[in-house]
Specification:
This protein has 354 residues and is mostly helical. It folds into 2 domains: 168 residues, Rossmann fold (3-Layer(aba) Sandwich); 122 residues, Orthogonal Bundle (Arc Repressor Mutant, subunit A). The protein is 46% helix and 11% strand. It is built from 15 helices and 10 strands. The strands form 4 sheets. Strands 1-2-3 form a 3-stranded parallel β-sheet. The protein has a 3-stranded antiparallel β-sheet with strand order 4-5-6. Strands 7-8 form a two-stranded parallel sheet. It starts with a strand and ends with a helix. The chain binds glutamic acid (GLU).
Length: 354
């Protein structure tokens, strides 16, 4: 039988890292067995559905490069299927309608249909897993408590629940399931904080299908982010930061895309610096050395300008301040290489003009 798995987020907004782990695990499970991944949107519970929630999830999946083969299948559009299943359970004496009109399992009383006729997550999830011919459910272990009930519901509607594999959750530093209050919890948070998608994806790929809960390893996530930035081509890094391609060498040491964008700003459009008179001799010497070079310096040429400047007692901090307006930032040789000659001369002149 062909493998069919599903990723079934509730549309509550950007995916949490733990949900994203489930998505990656399902994608890999499908790929390893030449199977199919169905995206299902669990939107039967109005209190867990937020406007734009589905779009946010689609955006996160695309950002993480997690493709799906079928869907999105929206539970809100499949009410008739759930009502039919509940009716089958009633006919089979596995469920009954209470005085208020809700349909409940006889054994244990779990609600299948609310009194307004809408399906609960438990019923909808089981009916969909059967109807979509899911062969394995791969999900977080926070759903382990649902397993027995879902097995009973599957039997009540005349089917059998597929094999279910629960994986460990990602926990915050306090040992609790990662949630909004931990920060760095959602894919949108991570994107905003400048983590490149390749780094986040690598982190999730390395976690695989953890048997037990794991604590979010922020230092490792940061390391993978730095590695991912380092592995980008100049063109990729230019696109990811919006920086001009000439400025990219100066972004190389950045540990996040936010930092890379800050570096780009220092190189491309710094706030002007005004330096004290004792910086004048350094900047005049720098201007002489730089004026003799081509429009754009190579890394070697740039390093050699700085070496010569240092050899005559130049203060490199003044050069950095004059060129970037900041005391810290990218490596100075990379700044000198990224700023074109005339622009460099103008900044050096301006810094000591007043
Ligand atoms: N909508 C549920 C969730 O987001 C899916 C649970 C399941 O995979 O069965 O946790």
């Amino acid at each position: 039988m062909a493998v069919r798995v599903r990723f079934a987020p509730s549309p509550t907004g950007s995916l949490h890292l733990g949900n994203a782990l489930t998505a990656v695990a399902n994608r890999r499970f499908a790929d390893e067995q030449d199977g199919v991944l169905v995206l299902r949107i669990d939107d039967t519970d109005p209190t867990r559905t937020v406007a734009g929630g589905e779009e946010a999830i689609l955006q996160d999946l695309a950002w993480l490069d997690i493709g799906f083969d079928e869907g999105p299948v929206r539970q809100s559009e499949r009410g008739a299927l759930y009502a039919e299943a509940a009716a089958r359970a009633i006919v089979g004496h596995a469920a009954e309608r209470d005085q208020e009109g809700a349909v409940r399992l006889r054994d244990g009383g779990a609600t299948l249909l609310r009194k307004d006729g809408t399906a609960t997550y438990q019923l909808a999830s089981v009916v969909d897993d059967l109807d979509l011919e899911i062969t394995q459910v791969v999900r977080g272990s926070d759903h382990r408590p649902n397993l027995e009930l879902q097995r009973r519901i599957a039997r009540a509607v005349g089917g059998q629940l597929p094999e279910v594999i629960h994986h460990g959750l990602i926990l915050g530093s306090d040992g609790k399931k990662l949630s909004k209050r931990h920060g760095h919890a959602s894919i949108a948070d991570l994107r905003r904080e400048g983590f490149p998608s390749e780094g986040v994806r690598a982190y999730l790929d390395q976690l695989g299908l953890p048997e037990h809960d794991v604590q979010l390893d922020l230092p490792r996530l940061r390391r993978l982010a730095t590695d991912a930035i380092a592995a980008m081509s100049d063109a990729e890094l230019a696109t990811a930061t919006g920086a001009p391609i000439e400025a990219v060498p100066a972004l190389r040491g950045a540990r996040s895309l936010v930092e890379a964008r800050e570096y780009a700003k220092l190189v491309v459009a710094p706030v002007g610096a005004s330096l004290p008179p004792d910086a004048r001799s350094t900047l005049e010497r720098f201007a002489e050395l730089r004026a003799a070079g081509p429009d754009h310096l190579s890394a070697d040429e740039s390093r050699s300008v700085l070496r010569e400047l240092k050899a005559v007692g130049g203060d490199l901090r003044s050069v950095r301040l004059a060129l970037t307006g900041a005391a810290k930032g990218p490596e100075l040789w990379a700044v000198v290489a990224a700023v074109p000659r005339d622009e460099a001369l103008a900044r050096a002149g301006h810094a000591v003009a007043s």
